[in-house]
């Protein structure tokens, strides 16, 4: 079985591991990109996987180019698998697989179509999300649903943990979908476009702390960007990132930060939050006690505006 995998980040790596054990793989990914503090150029996770596991791969920032389409066609694909790729596939390329072009999408479609479904689900206070295996169509995330699996979201669910859970669940569900399609033992559910919502791309404003809201909303914001990139705020002319926090009963005015008995707290419109992990600009993540050993935080310091 020949499978072409399209991906640009680590979300699809569990799927790649599963696919590599059952098929002949061709990986399509994008060119190396800058990352980290120094903005050095690094290969993307699918390319790293390909090099480590001796899997054929192509790099392109336009998968719809004639040369790429020709190489994919010559591969004689049985399936496409798309996982967090960031490029739209045109109809001419979607028609190439023998069976179906499939997409692993980390939401319960038709909710949260688009670029940032995991973070948006946490930010919006959803109590569940999930994985959808869908048939790829030209319209973004709108194809027929082949399989879905629900995953719970709690008050302490953070982005990096949910990302990992969904990526593993997506790999498991993908194989079930592939085998059911080969056996012609599946039903495709058409999405109801009237129920569709869109998970907009993340901007800096999304991970800039807004502590003028109730504690639940603030914690959801922190959780949606934990443990990366963190929720940033400004204090004493310096930027910091909150990495982990929990609910607290300590009383503190909204939009302030304070230290009480070696514990660090953030005031919101309702209850406060205890900050467990924090990252000063240009430094490593540290727990609040280590932070307070190096930074003097008086009670009820008002956060500065950007």
Number of strands: 18
Biggest pleated-sheet summary: 7 strands, mixed
Low-confidence stretches: none
Radius of gyration: 22 Å
CATH topology of the largest domain: Rossmann fold
Q: Kindly, what is the distance between the CA atoms of the first and last residues, rounded to a whole number of angstroms?
A: 54 Å
Determine the structural class based on helices, strands and strand pairing. Answer: alpha/beta
Main-sheet strand order equals 5-2-1-6-7-9-10
Mean pLDDT: 95
Beta-strand fraction estimate: 25-35%
Task: Write the CATH homologous superfamily of the largest domain.
Answer: Formyl transferase, N-terminal domain
Helix-strand sequence = EHEEEHEHEHEEHEEHEHEEEEEEHE
Q: Helix share of residues?
A: 25-40%
How would you characterize this protein structure?
The protein has 306 residues and is of the alpha/beta class. It has two domains: 198 residues, Rossmann fold (3-Layer(aba) Sandwich), CATH 3.40.50; 99 residues, Formyl transferase, C-terminal domain (Methionyl-tRNA Fmet Formyltransferase, Chain A, domain 2, Roll), CATH 3.10.25.10. It has a seven-stranded mixed β-sheet with strand order 5-2-1-6-7-9-10. Strands 12, 13, 14, 15, 16, 17 and 18 form a seven-stranded antiparallel β-sheet that branches. Helix content is 25%, strand content 30%. α1 packs parallel to α6 and α5 packs antiparallel against α7. The chain is built from eight helices and 18 strands. InterPro entries: Fmt, Formyl_trans_C, Formyl_transf_N, Formyl_transf_N_sf, Formyl_transferase-like_C_sf, GART_AS, Met-tRNA-FMT_C, Met-tRNA-FMT_N. Belongs to the Fmt family. Its EC number is 2.1.2.9.
């Amino acid at each position: 079985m020949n499978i072409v995998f399209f991906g640009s980040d680590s979300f699809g790596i569990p799927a790649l591991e599963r696919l590599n054990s059952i098929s002949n793989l061709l990986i399509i990914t994008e060119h190396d990109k800058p990352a980290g503090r120094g903005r050095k150029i690094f290969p993307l996770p699918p390319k790293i996987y390909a090099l480590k596991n001796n899997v054929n791969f192509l790099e392109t920032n336009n998968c719809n180019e004639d040369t790429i389409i020709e190489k994919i066609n010559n591969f004689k694909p049985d399936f496409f698998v798309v996982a967090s790729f960031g490029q739209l596939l045109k109809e001419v390329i979607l028609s190439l697989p023998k069976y179906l072009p499939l997409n692993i999408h980390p939401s319960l479609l038709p909710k949260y179509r688009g670029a940032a479904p995991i973070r948006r689900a946490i930010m919006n206070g959803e109590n569940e999300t999930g994985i959808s295996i869908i048939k790829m169509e030209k319209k973004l995330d709108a194809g027929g649903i082949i399989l879905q699996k629900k995953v719970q979201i709690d008050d302490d669910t953070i982005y990096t943990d949910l990302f990992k859970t969904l990526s593993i669940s997506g790999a498991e569900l993908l194989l079930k979908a592939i085998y059911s399609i080969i056996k012609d033992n599946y039903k495709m559910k058409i999405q109801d476009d009237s129920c569709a919502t869109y998970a907009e791309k993340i901007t800096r404003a999304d991970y800039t702390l807004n502590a003028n809201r109730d504690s639940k909303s603030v914690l959801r914001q922190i959780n949606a960007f934990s443990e990366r990139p963190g929720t940033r705020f400004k204090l004493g002319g310096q930027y910091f990132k909150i990495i982990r926090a929990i609910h607290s009963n300590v009383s503190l005015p909204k939009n302030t930060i304070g230290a009480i008995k070696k514990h660090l707290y953030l005031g919101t419109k309702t209850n406060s939050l205890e900050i467990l992990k924090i990252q000063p600009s240009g430094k490593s993540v540290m727990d609040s006690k280590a932070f307070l050993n190096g930074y003097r935080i008086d009670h009820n310091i008002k956060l500065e505006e950007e």
